[in-house]
Each structure stands twice: as structure tokens, then as C-alpha cells.
Amino acid sequence: MQIFLAVLFSGIIIAITVSSIIKVLLIAHRRKEISKRQFASMATMSTIVGIVVLTVLPALYDVVFTYFNSLT
Q1: Do 7 and 57 contact (CB within 8 A), yes or no?
Q2: Is the whole model's pTM more than 0.70, yes or no?
Q3: Where are the domains of the chain?
Q4: Cys-Cys with 50: which of 18, 45, 58, 66 at CB 3.0–4.6 Å?
């Protein structure tokens, strides 16, 4: 249950971060500071990185919680 709540909270933070990055990229694209290809590639990469981090988090939280539970 602890891991689920930690992953859920982290997932919300990651989703907000990725959406904010995409909003900034969209503003830069509208101002013609980046091309359409750069916008698409950077938005895709930030989404992929967010998904990868969210996929790896449960295993990392399990290791951290197991370590701290073994100390007590």
C-alpha cells in the first residue's frame, strides 16, 4: 500500500512536469523559436522519459522501503 501511494503521488508530479514541458515547447513553437520537428521530438522524448521513470519507480520504492524497514 505504501508503494502504491508513493508511485501514485510521484506519477501525478511526473504528469504535471511533462505537461508543463510540453506547454513550454508549444509556446516556443508558436514564437518560431523551435521548428515543428524539434517540437515533436522534444515532446516525444519528454513523454517517453516520464513513462520510463514511472515504470521504474515501483522497483526503486520497493528497494527503499525494504531497506528502511530492515533498519527497524
Answers
A1: yes
A2: yes
A3: 2-71
A4: 18
